[in-house]
């Protein structure tokens, strides 16, 4: 039986058998009554196929993702004009009359990508607040530079931020709204090739970003025909000097010179070290597990004004410190994501497991961070406050005028080793408090893998 190429499918023409592989399925957010599939043929061309969502169980009983079939008895319909996953102007629609005859493996690709280059990505930017949706969703490939830990917003929605750089040193962020899409350990993913599909291009805090959708997939070192070419081209990329639109790499002196009113919301990156940590400010705060409200210590326990005493509060870092490079120093605040990625201990674990229940006594693992050279990603607020929301590695082969002075740059390895040894020994909290108090006392003094466009 002869089959038709997906690229040759047109509206108002007789249908013919299709030999396809099912790549993925999803339920579009805008049309929950529909169930969508992505089919690909042996030529690497893709097409969307749609059925009624209430028939999902019926079709799941005999068709499966990544399996191959000969499809007959379908109809052709115009593709939707928003959030399409492929550029084909025709889609398929099928129901219980359709026939899916199992097809032995015959070389049909197990993937479909339609990578867009950076300039095309920029041209597809939409204003999500105006509910304007793109005609075509975007696939993108690059190298993972940094991964922010899962973050809970006030609505308790969890997401992941991934900084991605392409072979031309363009940088953007990928916002992963469904954390189950990213099934990789951070250590395994850093500096590896990432392919993300079916995203919406938006902008947040002056940073270009790709937001995942219900149709999105994420792969690390995807099994595509020219993956080795991508790995070779990305292996020698330098650390980005501009980390996302609006984030500039500066010295602390240059950061302090910026007018906070003119640069409200601007983001900067400084290579520096922590020189001191304030012992006059609390190093954490607690949030209600039932609502976004802050908790207050009462005789009965941590209390929410709406929900009363909370037995399982959310603890968040808020560490006031001074950072310095060779040019100057500045007072900053490390918020939860930044401190968690730096100290490698969740704030709740620091309080519960490590026994640091007093928010006015700085934990030793945090104190041991002093002198370690890092890149601090800073948001300068209108009132001049410098908030650190991310911390990344300071690569030694990257030259910058903001490197730390020799006095501080000779100690990071020793401090880092000491901190890791301390944590691994599991020293009890009473010993930790005693050590800290003693120290304080002493101190008081498909084949379509080429980017389009």
Automatic annotation (TrEMBL):
Top-rank lineage group of the source organism: Eukaryota
Region (Disordered): 396-453
Low complexity: bias regions: 396-414
Compositionally biased intervals (Basic residues): 433-453
Name of protein: Replication factor A C-terminal domain-containing protein
């Amino acid at each position: 039986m002869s089959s038709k190429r997906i690229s040759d499918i047109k509206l108002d023409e007789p249908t013919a058998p299709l030999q396809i592989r099912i790549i993925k399925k999803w339920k579009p957010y805008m049309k929950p009554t529909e169930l969508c599939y992505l089919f690909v043929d042996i030529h690497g061309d893709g097409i969307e196929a749609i059925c009624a969502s209430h028939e999902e169980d019926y079709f799941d009983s005999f068709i499966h993702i990544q399996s191959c079939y000969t499809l007959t008895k379908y109809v052709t319909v115009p593709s939707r004009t928003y959030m399409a996953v492929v550029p084909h102007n025709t889609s398929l629609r099928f129901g219980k009359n359709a026939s899916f005859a199992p097809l032995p493996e015959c070389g049909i690709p197990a993937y479909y990508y339609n990578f867009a280059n950076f300039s095309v990505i920029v041209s597809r930017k939409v204003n999500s607040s105006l509910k304007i949706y793109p005609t075509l969703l975007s696939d993108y490939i690059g190298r993972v530079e940094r991964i922010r830990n899962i973050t809970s917003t006030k609505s308790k929605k969890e997401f992941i931020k991934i900084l991605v750089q392409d072979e031309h040193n363009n940088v953007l962020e990928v916002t992963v709204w469904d954390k189950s899409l990213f099934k990789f350990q951070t250590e395994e993913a850093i500096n590896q090739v990432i392919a993300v599909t079916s995203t919406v291009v938006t902008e947040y805090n002056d940073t270009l970003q790709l937001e995942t959708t219900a149709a999105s997939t994420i792969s690390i070192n995807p099994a595509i025909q020219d993956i080795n070419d991508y790995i070779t081209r990305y292996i020698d990329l330098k650390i980005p000097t501009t980390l996302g639109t609006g984030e500039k790499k500066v010295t602390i002196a240059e950061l302090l010179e910026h007018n906070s009113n003119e640069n409200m919301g601007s983001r900067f990156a400084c290579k520096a070290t922590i020189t001191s940590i304030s012992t006059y400010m609390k190093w954490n705060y607690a949030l209600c597990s039932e609502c976004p409200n802050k908790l207050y210590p009462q005789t009965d326990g941590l209390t929410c004004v709406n929900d009363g005493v909370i037995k399982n509060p959310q603890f968040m870092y808020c560490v006031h410190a001074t950072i310095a490079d060779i040019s100057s120093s500045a007072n900053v605040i490390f918020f939860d994501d930044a401190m968690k990625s730096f100290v490698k201990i969740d704030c709740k674990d620091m309080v519960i497991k490590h026994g640091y229940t007093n928010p006015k006594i700085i934990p030793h693992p945090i104190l041991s961070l002093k002198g370690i050279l890092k890149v601090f990603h800073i948001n300068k607020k209108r009132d001049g406050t410098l908030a650190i929301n991310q911390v990344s590695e300071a690569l030694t082969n990257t030259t910058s005028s903001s490197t730390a002075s020799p006095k501080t740059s000779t100690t990071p390895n020793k401090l880092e080793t000491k901190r890791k040894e301390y944590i691994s020994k599991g020293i009890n909290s009473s010993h930790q408090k005693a050590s800290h108090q003693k120290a304080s006392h002493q101190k008081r003094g498909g084949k379509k893998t080429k980017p389009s466009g």
